[in-house]
Amino acid sequence: QVQVVESGGGLVQTGGSLRLSCAASGTIFSIYAVGWYRQTPGKQRDMVATIASSGRTNFADSVKVRFTISRDNAKNTVYLQMNNLKPEDTAVYYCRVDLPSGRGPYWGKGTLVTVSS
To answer: Which residues have C-beta within 8 Å of that of residue 105, sequence separation ≥ 6?
Structure first.
């Protein structure tokens, strides 16, 4: 079982920045694939950004250029740097961890990001 905890959400004005953190348990964090997803009430949970164990990244078109994802394997943590935030980025952001051999996914409980106009 992998424990996943998100942090860093909050209230920010349009154009502002936030950095979300996703910490996961386990001694072999470097092999985890990690992704950030977001969800608003009544809508499905959508992929925002992912980072593979190799470091390869993928982004939703709506956040390309504005968001970056990185990982610090020594700290068992993945970061989502969000710049030039827009009201439509308001959502609960969830971290998802996938292990090799198909184990998972493991989800955190989410962190709320609110962007005021």
So the answer is: 96, 97, 98
Q: Would the CA dihedral through 27, 32, 10, 38 be positive or negative?
A: negative
In sequence order, the β-bridge partners of residue 111 are 93
Taking every pair of Cα atoms in the chain, the longest distance, rounded to a whole number of angstroms, is 44
Tokens 């079982």 — which residue? 1
Residue 8 confidence (pLDDT)? 98
Beta bridge partners of 37: 47, 94
Instruction: Label residues 4-36 b or e (16+ Cβ within 10 Å = b).
Output: bebebbeebeeeeebebbbbbebeebeebbbbb
Q: Which residues in the chain belong to E strands, given as ranges?
A: 4-7, 10-13, 18-24, 33-39, 46-51, 57-59, 67-72, 77-82, 91-98, 106-107, 111-116
For 13, 55, 57, 63, 90, the CA distances from 70, given in Å and listed in that order, are 24, 8, 8, 15, 21
pLDDT single digits (tens) 24-57: 998 788 889 999 999 999 999 999 999 999 999 9
